[in-house]
């Protein structure tokens, strides 16, 4: 007999013999979900089971079934120990290959909890609809551990709310149907070490119609121009879509609000009736007429009170809003500065504080707090997406939040932001570009601009006008988990790639920001995040990210500040400070968190550089400053941070900020400056005229034209480090043996910041793997672990490297290294011992390969090429030439790190700027040719002929690379790398002289 039937029989017998006191006479018998007697194993999907989860390796609780004499039911209870720094808990999922469960006959779910009197809330989720427990809607409630000993906690289904964050894709209707339930999950407290015990999860009670039927309205806010009418749709829905058993009545009346009845609108009152037998989803409408007066006014509200009988009322009172009109700031003909000044002069302190606040979409639920707290901005953190994760759903989501802003007095639109760092990477199916490290390898500023333009188009088409990109960090240590977010280790290279700012924003004067294919850009992370010292991080288990950058003033200016000066000149709209600390040697201050460095934000960025945009903090960066919360707020705001990213702490921030201003500790002038900067960008973006999603380009998202740009970028990013015997390009007539962990893994190929924050291995978006692309061009045999027979193949291609990570999670020493995995090393060894081989390294940073380099015929740095594996195949098969060059130095060993172009001691495996080409044969002539090229390059430099100068340096580089071959020494590598830096700074004659020095040493 199945487990569920056995449990149900036992419960029925128990109910007959001894009915519980809490069970009403006509209630159904409670149905067990978990007895914790061992009937449900510790397992995960697709099998039924209980499993723990958490934010990192330490967060999942340790679960066990423990025999307890005081067990409320049976002999055992579920117990667990936890010490959670991020998030953690456990889940019971039903078997994915069996039908979902039907809970619709019951009032709710209950459980026994062994209270510890902590006062902590315990979130409890249930899983509704979709394909299985990991692809279902999440509905949440909570109970408070404010008691001691065993207590039965009842959680009625009417108390569950739809989660707006971390929803998976698929099967979503935003209705708690209860007819397709897949299990539950429980989240444990964070920041305290503890132990829990629970028992006997079961369904209880009978669901009457008032619990099964809900009245909803089609919106919470109904903006209308003065003199117009608002049409409100009122709908009744039931769980399971059953017809109504009893009538439902909805009495309505306009009452309260800031609009005046009889003057601003015609009052309405009445009753809507849904008789017994009415089908679920039936809608009635009512209209509210507004009246016209010609005087300029702010927006005014007309709440529509709904009194529901026989069903659950809407969670919110809908509001009709008479739009603001006739005020100068609404006049698009006026200069932006005048519009800003007019609006700021009208705003209260609380409204200004709201504009300086950015919350996470998941924190505001359906969005009521947008109006309540006058919020100026929302964001999607990595992986925070609507459900389903489609362009249309993104547009609906952002429009829904913008609608909430219409209920505020001045109707200031939200500015919504995302981390679209290599395409619209939160959106499944978007075009994913190579990460910046690969873009740097292309040495192609025009292509960099085109990739950014594609990103801007796809982001804006989903209703998002703001991108937290580009990262202008100068990566000086490849142990950093954010290395791939950098264009390279040379500030000159980073500066050359800042054409991406124009790709995102358009012209430097901001005139194109209002266009439906442009977004506001963010230069990050100001300043020095790429120079943090290994071992200096104090954030969790990070080793280098968010650490301390120790530099002289000269190094700070020359290396880390230069890219931001260029970004300001290019008109970048926002700047984000770094989590890291800056220690300027000799200034006597020691390490200071960047969010607290007024000398750098106010003094250098806004003062000396003349930055006129606004400064947005990083995620919860306030919490890393010293002092109590009000002093943290004061420090950051006075340092020059204009908007605070406080994802779940927006209420505390607005309260603290207004408190500091009212106490005189933060000046009102500083607040007005911050708000003016923010509003200026909102006006430039055209949000006051067009607050809602402009979706004209939505059909282009992930389309052929955009993917063609990404394919070209992937091809140009490939760096050919070694090519003995001309193994590459491959010929279509060859039989190719393909192996390695990254040959057929789209997730590894796209890396971190792809669909989710950390990214993930496997297929989680649309694209072409390197293997799939190679199969289009040649005769390919694939064996991931190189276990398939190798006889009869002409050449092997082994695609190895890293799995996805982001930020400090990817720091070397935090569970990561620069070594290939044992499986990857084995695959390389097997294939390269059996045949000529090419090894492709798909990674966010160099991998240590020197001990195997002699056995490898061709070596390619593929970086993280994005969704278009066709671009990689294009260069492998010679459809495009290899032209990429190293954007960072490739070390021989980890002990060399950090190693960078310009270092006094410089003896890498491959120098900065190295990259063989299959475009053409190297010029002949040797030293004589180099002398002639040097003369011509000097003349091009003096004439300002940059294109000609770079071409001459490239010819000289080919001569040196051909002579040097794979036998690189420090005497060759150092002048070779220096030459690439000189070329990027326009010193073409000196670059050729350095290459001549390298040639003589070869």
UniProtKB/TrEMBL annotation:
Extent of the signal sequence: 1-24
Domain of life: Bacteria
InterPro entries in the record: CalX-like_sf (IPR038081), Calx_beta (IPR003644), CBM11 (IPR005087), Cellulose_Degrad_GH3 (IPR051915), Galactose-bd-like_sf (IPR008979), GH (IPR017853), Glyco_hydro_3_AS (IPR019800), Glyco_hydro_3_C (IPR002772)
TM stretches of this protein: none
Domain named Calx-beta: residues: 202-307
EC number from the UniProt entry: 3.2.1.21
Catalysed reactions listed for this entry: Hydrolysis of terminal, non-reducing beta-D-glucosyl residues with release of beta-D-glucose
One example GO MF annotation: cellulase activity
SMART domains xref list: Calx_beta
Family the entry assigns: Belongs to the glycosyl hydrolase 3 family.
Protein name as it appears in the record: beta-glucosidase
Organism of this sequence: Streptomyces humidus
């Amino acid at each position: 007999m199945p487990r569920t039937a056995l449990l149900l029989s036992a419960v029925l017998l128990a109910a007959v013999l001894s009915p519980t006191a809490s069970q009403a006479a006509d209630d159904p018998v409670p149905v067990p979900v978990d007895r914790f007697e061992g009937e449900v194993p510790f397992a995960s999907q697709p099998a039924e089971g209980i499993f723990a989860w958490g934010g990192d390796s330490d967060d999942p609780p340790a679960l066990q079934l423990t025999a307890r004499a005081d067990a409320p039911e049976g002999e055992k209870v579920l117990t667990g120990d936890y010490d959670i720094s991020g998030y953690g808990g456990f889940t019971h999922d039903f078997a994915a290959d069996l039908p979902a469960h039907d809970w619709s006959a019951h009032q709710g779910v209950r459980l026994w909890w062994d209270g510890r009197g902590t006062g902590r809330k315990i979130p409890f989720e249930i899983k509704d609809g979709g394909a299985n427990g990991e692809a279902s809607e999440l509905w949440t409630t909570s109970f408070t551990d404010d008691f001691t000993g065993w207590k039965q906690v009842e959680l009625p289904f009417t108390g569950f709310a739809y989660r707006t964050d971390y929803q998976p894709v698929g099967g979503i209707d935003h209705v708690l149907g209860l007819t397709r339930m897949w299990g539950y999950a429980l989240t444990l407290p964070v920041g305290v070490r503890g132990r829990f015990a629970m028992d006997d999860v079961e369904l209880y009670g009978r669901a009457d119609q008032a619990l099964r039927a809900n009245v909803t309205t089609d919106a919470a806010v109904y903006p209308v121009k003065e003199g117009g009418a608002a049409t409100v749709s009122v709908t009744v829905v039931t769980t399971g879509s059953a017809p109504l058993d009893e009538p439902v009545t909805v009495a309505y009346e306009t009452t309260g609000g800031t609009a005046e009845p009889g003057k601003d609108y015609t009052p309405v009152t009445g009753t809507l009736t849904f008789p017994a037998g009415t089908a679920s989803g039936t809608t009635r409408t009512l209209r509210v007429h507004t009246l016209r007066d010609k005087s300029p006014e702010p927006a005014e509200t007309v709440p529509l009170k709904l009194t529901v009988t026989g069903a659950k009322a809407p969670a919110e009172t809908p509001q009709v809003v008479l739009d603001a009109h006739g005020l100068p700031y609404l006049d698009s003909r006026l200069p932006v500065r005048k519009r800003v000044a007019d609006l700021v002069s009208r705003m209260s302190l609380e409204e200004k504080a709201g504009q300086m606040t950015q919350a996470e979409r998941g924190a505001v639920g359906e969005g009521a707090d947008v109006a309540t707290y006058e919020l100026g901005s929302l964001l999607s953190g990595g992986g925070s997406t609507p459900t389903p994760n489609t362009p249309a759903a993104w547009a609906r989501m952002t429009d829904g939040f913008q609608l909430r802003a219409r209920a505020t007095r001045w109707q200031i639109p939200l500015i919504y932001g995302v981390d679209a760092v290599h395409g619209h990477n939160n959106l499944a199916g978007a075009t994913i570009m190579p990460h910046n490290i690969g873009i740097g390898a292309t040495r192609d500023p025009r292509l960099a601009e085109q990739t950014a333009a594609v990103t801007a188009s796809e982001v804006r088409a989903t209703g998002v006008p703001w991108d937290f990109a580009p990262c202008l960090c100068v990566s000086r240590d490849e142990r950093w988990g954010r290395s791939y977010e950098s264009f390279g280790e040379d500030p000159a290279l980073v500066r050359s790639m800042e054409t991406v700012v124009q790709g995102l924003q358009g012209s430097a004067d901001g005139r194109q920001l209002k266009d439906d294919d442009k977004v506001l850009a963010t230069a990050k992370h100001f300043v020095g995040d790429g120079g943090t010292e290994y071992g200096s991080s104090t954030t969790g288990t990070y080793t280098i990210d968010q650490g301390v950058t120790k530099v002289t003033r000269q190094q700070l200016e020359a290396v880390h500040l230069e890219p931001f000066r260029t970004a300001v000149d290019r008109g970048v709209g926002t700047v984000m400070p770094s989590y890291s600390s800056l220690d300027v040697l000799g200034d006597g201050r020691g390490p200071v968190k960047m969010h607290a460095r007024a000398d750098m934000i106010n003094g250098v960025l806004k003062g000396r550089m003349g930055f006129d945009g606004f400064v947005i903090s990083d995620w919860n960066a306030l919490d890393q400053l010293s002092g109590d919360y009000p002093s943290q707020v004061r420090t950051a705001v006075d340092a020059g941070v204009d908007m605070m990213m406080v994802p779940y702490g927006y209420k505390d921030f607005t309260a603290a900020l207004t408190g500091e201003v009212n106490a005189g500790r933060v000046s009102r002038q500083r607040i007005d400056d911050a708000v003016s900067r923010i509003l200026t960008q909102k006006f430039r973006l055209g949000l006051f005229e067009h607050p809602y999603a402009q979706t004209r380009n939505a059909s282009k998202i992930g389309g052929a034209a955009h993917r063609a740009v990404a394919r070209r970028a992937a091809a140009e990013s490939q760096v050919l480090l070694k090519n003995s015997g001309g193994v590459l390009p491959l010929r279509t007539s060859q039989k190719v043996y393909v192996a390695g962990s990254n040959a057929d893994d789209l997730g590894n190929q796209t890396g971190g910041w792809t669909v989710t924050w950390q990214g993930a291995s496997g297929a989680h978006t649309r694209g072409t793997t390197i293997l799939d692309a190679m199969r289009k061009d040649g005769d390919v045999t694939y064996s991931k672990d190189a276990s398939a027979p190798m006889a009869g193949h002409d050449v092997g291609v082994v695609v190895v490297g890293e799995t996805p990570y982001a930020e400090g999670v990817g720091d070397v020493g935090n569970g990561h290294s620069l070594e290939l995995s044992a499986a990857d090393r084995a695959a390389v060894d097997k294939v390269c011992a059996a045949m000529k081989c090419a090894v492709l390294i798909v990674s966010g940073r160099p991998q240590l390969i020197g001990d195997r380099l002699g056995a490898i015929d061709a070596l390619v740095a593929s970086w993280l090429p994005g969704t278009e594996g066709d671009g990689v195949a294009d260069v492998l098969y010679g459809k495009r030439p290899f032209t990429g060059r190293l954007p960072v130095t490739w070390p021989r060993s980890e002990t060399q790190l950090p190693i960078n172009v310009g270092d006094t001691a410089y003896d890498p495996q491959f120098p900065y700027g190295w990259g063989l080409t299959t475009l053409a044969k190297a010029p002949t002539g040797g030293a004589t040719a180099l002398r002639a090229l040097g003369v011509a390059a000097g003349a091009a430099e003096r004439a300002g002929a940059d294109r000609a100068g770079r071409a001459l340096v490239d010819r000289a580089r080919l001569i040196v690379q051909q002579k040097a071959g794979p036998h690189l020494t420090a005497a060759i590598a150092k002048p070779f790398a220096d030459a690439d830096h000189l070329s990027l700074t326009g010193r073409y004659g000196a670059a050729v002289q350095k290459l001549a020095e390298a040639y003589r040493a070869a």
